[in-house]
Amino acid sequence: MHRKKSLTKYAIVSFLTFILISCGGANTEKSPNSEALAPKSDFSVAMVLPGLINDKSWSQAGYEGLKLVEKEFGAKIAYVENSQGAETEKYLRYFAQADCNLIIAHSGGYTRASKTVASEFPRIKFAVIEPYAGNNKNLGGIAFRYSEMGYLTGVIAALKTKNNRVAYIGGEKYTSTAEEAIAFEWGAKAINPKVKVLINWVGSWLDEDKAKTVALSQIASGADVLAIDADKAGNGAIKVVAQKPGVYGIGWVEDQYALAPGKILTSVIQRIPLLIFNGVTLVKQGRWEGKLYRFGMREKVHELAPFRGLLSPEQETKVNQIQADILSGKLDVSRVN
Which CATH number covers residue 47? Predict the structure, then answer.
């Protein structure tokens, strides 16, 4: 979820000037293209992204969600990509000064900055794409029901393991990934109470070498099924899985089977654009109350990729039944939240 910086200071300043005009609230001597700034509606949404909009992962999915909002609501949109550290607070403040209706902070790492800026601009609505409880005013969280897929992947791992050891690899320990990890362990132990569950953090969403080291350590400890939610860093762990006989992986965010054919049992497909659209819809409808808004299988914002014959028919049936029980409410996995 973090990417190497690519914009010069001049480009950033010029781009932010454009942002301020496009949201409609700041004076500037710059004169961007008038056609590009032609208002489509009085509804404007801005987004701060931790990576690049073409990273084929978290940030690109966030940007696609912003474009979906533009298409469906005719909204004016603006964004800044690759925001790191203290500069995030500055960008959030820029958008607020520009009087955007909604400002989306597309990372769990942006929660503190969002809380600070939201308190300064009580009329502006803010959202963090993270299980943040909200301030019951203008800042809320938009999140997946992370426990659903965490639990299901734990079930799959426990069904597949031969060594009675399974593992979860997370990029960084945010509320969201912590929920996944806890639910993963619960799901695994629901299938086999004696299964050993390893949980480790890369400490990065980018460093493939660190993820490789984590994966090798887990495999050395006996884990033969690794659930990997670490963005680009996770590709390093998947490469390890691909090279180790008898070891399987579970991908995240998108279908990652092509990265290790025959070795990726399934992937958690997260429809991040739809998640964002559902959250923005609440704002558009006047229903935003600065709370935590969760979406999951029922809203079709996440699902499992095909198993492609890597589970036995009996194992697939078991997974499908548990998934149906979660959807119907017969099995409640939300307590991890």
Answer: 3.40.50.2300
